[in-house]
Amino acid sequence: MITNIVAYLTETTNMTQTDIASKLKNSDDNKTGVSQALVSKWNRGEKIPKNHERELLMMADLYWELELEDDEIPFGNLVESRWNIIVKSEKNQEDWYNFFTDMLAPKKFSNKHSEYKDSDFVKFVRECIFSLNEAGFVVPENPESISNKNNSRFFNLLRRWMHRVTILQYWCYGSIPHSPMKDSRYTELYDNLPRIALAQVIIKKDLPEKSDRALFENYVQDMTQFVDSLIRNYLFWDSMNEGFFGDDDFNELLIQRNKESKDTLTYSSPEDMTTEIENIHDQFLSYAERKIMDRLNANEKLIQELHQKIDLLINQNDDSDGIPF
């Protein structure tokens, strides 16, 4: 899916980059027109100034005003051509906001301060859609096509995803140290929780046929590297601050991966069965869950050893004098 506004204009209209450049306002001398080289840079991914991005959206007939109940963040900061290209209309936009609100129910979205604000929720929904696009999904213009009946696999993925996002948000706010002042490390983690959660819950089977499998692989790999780097950063900080984190703080929540599962399991011998079960154990359980299973297995082993000792004592007593103990 094309999400660059310059590429979108040249693809869907008869305008060339030169035509586009000639129609833009030049803020330096209040004249019409910018250089074609500048438009070309935007087409290659260079950041577009918000005033020009708004003009480009108007050329594509994809611009509409955004009304928010709180005005903490200036409207200009929420102009995002990628979003408008994907949803195509203000109605579709509102439908997506309502869709994610329902997906999060009965929980409610919380920002990094554990509060709800319209502007933060708008950015959250947009980042979720961008994450799907980055992961290789062809995102529909309107969520009506995503329903339990029409596209149950995609619908269930989104349900799992939003559930995971909620867990990570509550964990992050309650467990990660952050000051009332700006904390870039905490903000970076919190803002990326939707992307981390998607990488955790998504599997290849969730991808529709038209999805980009290479983008999916790259997305998961990139998020894995991001999480690993972030954890090392926090653990280095932790080593300088007398061990704030427990053993499972990051492992249980951030190093949880869904992997492809086998449709059927076949066993040829008890030894093969044990190996297969151990592989399943390692593949699907989180670090904290594996530790719990290890403790349960250790307790079971101790109980077996205790039973053996009791049997041995009973046999020894029977062989000695026949007097029960």
Rg computed from alpha carbons, rounded to a whole number of angstroms: 27 Å
Q: What order do the helices and strands follow?
A: HHEEHHHHHHHHHHHH
Strand content: under 5%
Helix content: 55-70%
Mean pLDDT: 78
Distance between the termini: 79 Å
Q: Count the strands?
A: 2
Number of domains: 3
Uncertain segments are: 260-285
Q: What global shape is seen? A: elongated
Q: What structural class results from the helix and strand content? A: mainly alpha
Q: Report the sheet with the most strands, covering strand number, pairing sense and barrel closure.
A: 2 strands, antiparallel
Total number of helices: 14
Q: Which sequence of strands runs across the widest sheet?
A: 1-2
How are the secondary structure elements laid out?
Layout: H1 5-12, H2 17-23, E1 25-26, E2 31-32, H3 36-43, H4 50-59, H5 81-87, H6 90-104, H7 118-134, H8 152-175, H9 184-191, H10 193-201, H11 213-239, H12 249-254, H13 270-284, H14 287-320
Antiparallel strand pairs: 1-2
